[in-house]
Amino acid sequence: MSEVQVRRKQFAVRKLPGFQSTAVLCFVLLYAPIAALVIYSFNAGTNIALWEGFSLKWYHVAWQNEQVQEVTIRSFIIASVASFSATLLATLAALGTTRTENYRGRTAIYALINQPLMVPEIVTGVALLIFFAIIKTVTGYHGLFYLMLAHTAFCIPFAYLPIRARLEGMDISLETAAQDLYATPWMTFRRITLPLLWPGVLAGAMLAFVISLDDVVITELVKSAGQDTLPTYMLGQLRRGVTPEVNAISSALLGVSILLVSLFYILRNR
Amino acid sequence: MAETENTSSVLAAQSHQVAIEASRRNKIRNFRLLSMPALIVLTIGAAGPLLIMLVYSFLKAAPYGGVVWEPSIDGWFGVFLKKDIFDGTISIATAHLSILWRSVNLSIQSTLLALILGFPTAYFIATRSVQTRNLWLFLITIPFWTNLLIRTFAIMQVIRDQGIINNFLIGWGLIESPIEMLYTDFAIMLGMTYVYLPLMVLPLYASIEKLDFRLVEAAYDLYATRLRVLWRIIIPLVRPGIVAGSILVFVPSLGAYVTPRVLGGGKHLMLGNLIELQFGQGRNWPLGAALSIFLLCVVMGALLIYVRVAQRGTTEHV
Predict the structure, then answer these.
(1) Residue B312: count of CB within 10 angstroms of its CB
(2) Chain A residues close to B252, C-beta within 8 Å
(3) Would you call B151 and A242 a contact, using CB atoms and an 8 Å cutoff?
(4) Computed over its alpha carbons, how large is the radius of gyration of chain B?
(5) Residue B96 CB partners (closer than 8 Å, separation 6+)
(6) A105's torsion region: left (phi>0), alpha (psi -120 to 50) or beta?
């Protein structure tokens, strides 16, 4: 053993020249643009290229902008509805597909659940646009329900995966013990399965919320007039060039995403 | 007497068997029912409309968007060919072909660039100690879960004429006037590499992590150079990861919409933008539907390779 260690010191088997510096460069490239965006959102000047001192001015401007308020509220309403319903549906589906014998049709269920991950967003968006156009002419309803349905659908796989992972790692003997002690199936679920599964459910909900909040393509295609969400509003603002205000909104949204994703990781590792 | 006892016990065993079978079926039915609500929503909100789109691609375009319910192959015809409005001559739709070529070309370029950057990064992470690995992986995944549009904005500000790179270069007197990078094919390629890089690193990491370094050591014992070890030992062993990562970057790049729209400035279209255009200004829904299905088929083909390679990868390691 010690001989091996001595040898390792003399000759690093795992080392490859240039790999470490490329990796460091890669991390820098990954974070530098985001860091620059956040830093410049605190710029006092109107020109986003020139640093004129620290200020919260643009956050204040964005906060006061009624249109921004409106689209932000809409984004959060859609994301809340979508993540709640997607998590509920995904939890049921996970309970129905994990810890069972391999019954007929299970592979097909997997495929359908993961379908939104495989089909390009633009394709799903266009298909929904066509489908909803038919429903709109038939029913005359133009509300937010379409966006909520679309978001729920593409959030399901993101909620499903962490819940399923949690279920697979769970000790089934606790549930068996509860049943041995004459607990009803519902009671076993309420008192044993659900509490153990809960971190997975929360993690799934966080991820679904972030995914819904960040969606651009499907929303852009499905939305009716006056149904902009925060990302589609920002995309629309691009015609006027990137303003420091957009920078401030971006940074705030970035903060929300990073917070939720960090919570997701903490919950997943619990 | 003994015989009847025997038959009755056989019967009892059989009925017991039947009861077990019935309860098993019952259980499976319940399991299927649990998945039903999710499947219904997915069918209405994602998978089903694809079939309607397929039907639409074989209908006639209405002049102001939408369709006329008459069968027609004009939509599919328009993917590669175009008919002159005046004399009806048929020629190849060069505009579409050049957009298609740009999509494929830029997707391949960004896949390669992501591989060049991602391989050493994944290798670096996989050779860290077990405790620090998770932190590095977390750092890779954080940008992936943050808004794609915001990351594209971030790249935009770096490569603008008055962006960080140009300001820096001019400030140091290296160049006189800004290098034009934004609103070019290069910008799109760079942007796609940037936003999809984590998709390359993660499967590569999964492969490299499983790599048996005793083989590497054996190669060095046999006087192999570092380059030779990389080329003949490491790369062949992590090939499933390389293929998986490449496909995971290539597929979303091919269907990209936001990145080319923001960084291409509306002039350098990719397939995703061409599709969207048919439902906006173009008002040719059947053509848009046909293009979408074309894109979907290419993507499914690539994913099929991915599944094949992934399966081979798992059996090899077992």
Answers:
(1) 13
(2) 120
(3) no
(4) 28
(5) B78, B79, B80, B82, B274
(6) left
User: In angstroms, what CA-CA distances link B90 with B77, B81, B94, B102?
Assistant: 10, 7, 12, 23
Residue B139 with chain A: CB contacts under 8 Å: 27, 30-31
B chain contacts of residue A253, beta-carbon cutoff 8 Å: 147, 150
**Does residue A189 contact residue A122 with C-beta atoms inside 8 Å?**
no
Please tell me if residue B303 touches chain A, with a CB cutoff of 8 Å. Answer: yes
pLDDT digits (tens, 9 = 90+) for B274-310: 999 999 887 889 999 999 999 999 999 988 888 887 7
* Tokens at A210, concatenated: 């972030």
Specify the DSSP element, H or E, that contains A64.
helix A57-64
Nearest CA in chain A to B151: A34
Domain spanning A59-268: CATH superfamily: MetI-like (1.10.3720.10)
Angle at B292 between CA B287 and CA B296, to 5 degrees: 150
Question: Which three-class secondary structure string do you get for chain B?
Answer: CHHHHHHHHHHHHHHHHHHHHHHHHHHHHHHHHHHHHHHHHHHHHHHHHHHHHHHHCCEEECCCCCEEEEECCHHHHHHHEEECCCCCCEEECHHHHHHHHHHHHHHHHHHHHHHHHHHHHHHHHHCCCHHHHHHHHHHHHHHHHCCHHHHHHHHHHHHCCCCHHHHHHHHCCCCCCCCCCCCCHHHHHHHHHHHHHHHHHHHHHHHHHCCCHHHHHHHHHCCCCHHHHHHHHHHHHCHHHHHHHHHHHHHHHHCCCHHHHHHHCCCCCCHHHHHHHHHCCCCCHHHHHHHHHHHHHHHHHHHHHHHHHHHHHHHHHC
Q: What angle do CA B212, B217, B222 make, to 5 degrees?
A: 135
pLDDT at position A246: 87
For residue range B15-64, list pLDDT tens digits in order: 888 888 888 888 788 888 889 999 999 999 999 999 999 999 999 888 87
- CB-neighbour burial class of residue A209 (10 A; exposed 0-12, middle 13-18, buried 19+): buried
- Phi and psi angles of residue A229, each rounded to the nearest 5 degrees, phi first: -100, 175
Rounded Cα distance between A217 and B262, Å, is 12
Could you tell me the residue ranges of all domains in chain A? 59-268
How would you write the pLDDT of chain A (270 residues) with one tens digit per residue?
455 555 545 577 788 888 889 999 999 999 999 998 898 888 887 766 677 788 888 899 889 989 999 999 999 999 999 999 999 999 999 998 887 777 788 888 888 999 998 899 999 999 999 999 999 999 989 999 999 999 999 999 999 999 999 998 888 888 888 888 988 888 888 888 899 999 999 999 999 999 999 999 999 999 998 899 999 999 988 877 777 888 899 999 999 989 998 888 888 877
Q: Is the CB of B147 inside 8 Å of chain A's CB atoms?
A: yes
CA distance A77 to B14: 57
Nearest to A93 among B34, B56, B127 (CB): B34
For chain A, state the CA radius of gyration: 24
- Decide: B279 and A221 in contact? Cβ < 8 Å: yes
